[in-house]
Each structure stands twice: as C-alpha cells, then as structure tokens.
Design a protein that fits this description.
Strand order of the largest sheet: 2-1-3-4
Shape: elongated
Strand content: 5-15%
Radius of gyration: 20 Å
Low-confidence stretches: none
Structural class: alpha+beta
Order of helices and strands: HHHHHHEHEEEH
Number of helices: 8
Helix content: 55-70%
Mean pLDDT: 88
Oligomer: single chain
C-alpha cells in the first residue's frame, strides 16, 4: 500500500495543481473519485492486469463506463496514467487529491466510528469541539462497528481519539500486564 501511495503522489499533486489553477477542484474530485471506484472493480482490474488488453482499449473502457464524469483534461490524465502503467494507483491518487483539496479549503475530514448511530445534537457538538481543537472546518464521516462495545473512535489525519470501551479495556489490560 505504501508503495502505491508513493507512486500515486506525483499524479495526485499534478492533478491537484491543474485543478486548482483552473478552478475545477470539485469537478476533478468527483471525476477522480468515480475513476477510483471504476478501477477498484474486479472486472476492470482483470482488464488492467491482462497483457492482451492495449492501452487504447483500457482508455475506451474507462470512457465507456465513466463518460459523464470525464472531460478532456481528466481523460488526458487517465490516458497518461494508463500509458505509464499507473492506473492501479487511481484509488490512491483520488485519496491524496482529497487530502490536498481539504487542506486548500482549510478543512479536515474526520472519521467517527461508533457502535450505534449518533444523534444530530452529538454530531453538532462534536463538529464544534473538533473545529475549535483543530482550528479548521470539520467534515464528519460516520460509520458503525458493533465490535467497539460502546463509545466512539475518532480519526482526523494523524490525530486519533479512542473513546471506545474496547480501547479502554485494551489500555487497562496493557497497564495490568506491565
């Protein structure tokens, strides 16, 4: 995974710089996200890995599947990635692009994992508290994980706040075994 991210970084940076210079960050974000989904599909991965499928055929496949998401610059970008054998890194390119976009917009994506759905009031108070702590606009993404027992796990970039019962039990177990 780290290797794919390393390979994807210059492409993400180039895409971001082009999109930022042309005022099309949102359009590129949507297109790269869609292409990442397409490239992650098992059938498409099989075509990418098939040596009998030419670069032109791969590009045609992407254009057929994603035509409404591809403008000329994005199509040229995808073509360049295909020609350089980097199409499998598209999900990493899209993820890195989103990080750069969030930083440029002064925002941070925060992933919150809880055992059950959270209330709107909790979402508002968490968003406000994180905005104050991080000094940036916060975009919350929620997911559920029943194995947490209770509480929530919050990830914002390098910051991890483990307020889960499972996390506390692990800390207690570690303290007792020392």
């Amino acid at each position: 995974m780290a290797e794919l991210t390393t390979l994807a970084r210059p492409y993400a940076k180039a895409a971001f710089e082009y999109a930022d210079a042309n005022g099309s960050l949102d359009a590129w974000s949507g297109a790269l996200g869609f292409l990442a989904e397409v490239v992650s599909n098992e059938v498409v991965q099989g075509k990418i890995d098939d040596p009998s499928v030419s670069d032109a055929q791969l590009l045609e496949l992407l254009q057929a599947v994603a035509s409404e998401h591809l403008n000329e610059p994005v199509t040229n970008f995808a073509k360049l990635m295909i020609e350089n054998g980097r199409l499998p890194t598209m999900p990493d390119v899209a993820a890195l692009f989103e990080i750069m976009k969030a930083e440029a917009e002064g925002a941070v994506d925060v992933d919150v994992t809880s055992v059950e759905p959270v209330t709107d009031e909790y979402k508002r108070s968490l968003s406000e508290a994180l905005r104050k702590k991080l000094g940036r606009e916060v975009r919350l993404n929620f997911s559920l994980d029943e194995s947490l027992i209770g509480g929530a796990l919050i990830r914002a970039g390098d910051l991890v706040i483990d307020g889960t019962v499972r996390g506390r039990l692990n800390q207690l177990s570690g303290a007792l075994s020392d």
